[in-house]
Specification:
- The protein is built from five helices and no strands.
- With about 160 residues, it is mostly helical.
- It has one domain.
- α2 crosses α3, α2 crosses α5 and α3 packs antiparallel against α4.
- The chain is elongated and about 65 Å long.
Length: about 160
């Protein structure tokens, strides 16, 4: 068993550059790309009155505010506009600025030493430090994955307003 395989058994979220994107990641990216296109194209075009090839982030956000200010009698629509803006902002501004969960743990595994497979953390402080970094990265990546799922569910709930 290789060191990389062993580490991936211990830490499932450890990235592997040889692995293709999972279908789950593709679903998330595709869904939020549709939301991004809706805001930057469709809403921006309605707001500005410009043609089908017009795309603008700021005009899309202003368009959401403008639609919200119209005070539709449908409270669900008003709520959906608020949610669209929140989800769009999360996808475009907040999510890309996340800290890389695995940045402090060498994901090339060049720091991991074969002899660590034969020791324990209480006997080797260097090994313990490396494993602590991996545990922290695993927890952070799990939080990110949970947040992604939560936001995707929120997007699904308002899909009929897109």
């Amino acid at each position: 068993m290789s060191i990389v395989t062993t580490l991936r058994d211990w830490f499932q979220t450890a990235p592997d550059s040889d692995e293709p994107k999972s279908y789950g990641v593709k679903i998330l990216e595709d869904s939020f790309t549709h939301l991004q296109n809706f805001v930057e194209c469709d809403i921006a075009q309605v707001y500005t009155g410009l043609g089908n090839d017009y795309r603008d982030k700021q005009k899309g956000l202003q368009g959401i505010d403008w639609l919200h200010a119209q005070k539709s009698k449908d409270p669900n629509y008003q709520s959906a506009l608020t949610e669209i803006k929140l989800l769009y902002t999360w996808w475009i501004d907040l999510r890309p600025n996340r800290t890389d969960a695995w940045k402090d743990a060498d994901i090339t595994y060049s720091q991991f030493k074969q002899e660590w497979l034969e020791t324990t953390e209480d006997k080797n402080s260097e090994y313990k430090e490396y494993m602590d970094k991996c545990r922290y990265a695993e927890k952070l990546q799990t939080l990110y994955n949970n947040e992604d799922t939560k936001m995707l569910l929120r997007l699904i709930q308002i899909r009929s307003y897109l």
